[in-house]
Amino acid sequence: MQKSTIQFLLINCFLAIVLVSCGSVTKNYTPKKLDKTAIEVPYFANSKTDYVYKTNITVYGHEMSGIFIAKKINDTTHRVVFTTEFGNKLLDFEIAEKTFKVNSIVSELDRKILINTLTDDFRLLLKKDYLVQEQFENETDNIYKSADGDYDNYLFIPKNDQKVTKVVNASKTKEKITITFTLENDKFAEKVVILHQNIKLKIELNYFKSE
To answer: Is residue 9 classed as helix, strand or coil in its secondary structure?
Structure first.
């Protein structure tokens, strides 16, 4: 992929911020008595596994594809690498709960707004442990609220199951990021979709099955 194409798709489009309307995030949920105080999301938690996904990124109607690789390298940190489909490395991050390190990034992507956006996405995607303060429900799911700095995370667990199928990161008034999981089993996600509500950004991860 030409450098100019990467720059157009993954830099300029991040700069066009579109605000969504305000309102209570939980207005359509019913409060419920809290039945657990902690939840584990284990889909990227095995340090013996290299999580490799074919990736499609859509920003403001433009698309690019590549390979996403995540590896848990110690108790607190994951290493994340994103490459082109031909194996050329575009970025290499180390991400923990409160810190991150850029090991390498191509110059066309080396922009603060892009790095911060992707770091927030990957940190939420890779997060395993949540402390729960409140619980809600709708027709299909139990919904657990977990504080996350100035934001909150809402974890959706179907009433007929015990697996987290969606995580929503939100302020007090609006949703920011939604991550949905299509599950192979209770430890592994076959497909992941990261959808932003305040910018037109969608990241789709499909598990890479070697032939």
So the answer is: helix
Instruction: Kindly report the pTM of this predicted structure.
Output: 0.87
Helix, strand, coil percentages in the chain from 3-state DSSP, rounded to 5: 15, 50, 40
Instruction: Please give the structure tokens belonging to residue 30.
Output: 């019913």
pLDDT tens-place string over residues 150-189: 999 999 999 998 899 999 999 988 899 999 999 988 888 9
User: Where does the chain have alpha helices with state H?
Assistant: 3-10, 112-126
DSSP state of 15: G
Name 180's Cβ contacts closer than 8 Å, sequence gap at least 6.
165, 166, 192, 193, 195
End-to-end CA distance of the chain: 25
Q: Give the bridge partners for 180, in sequence order.
A: 166, 193
Residues 29-52: tens digit of each pLDDT: 999 999 999 999 999 999 999 999
Query: Which is it for strands 201-207 and 188-196: parallel, antiparallel or unpaired?
Result: antiparallel
Residue 182 token pair: 């299509």
CA angle 36, 96, 158 (to 5 degrees): 30
Point out which residues pair with 134 in neighbouring strands.
Answer: 145
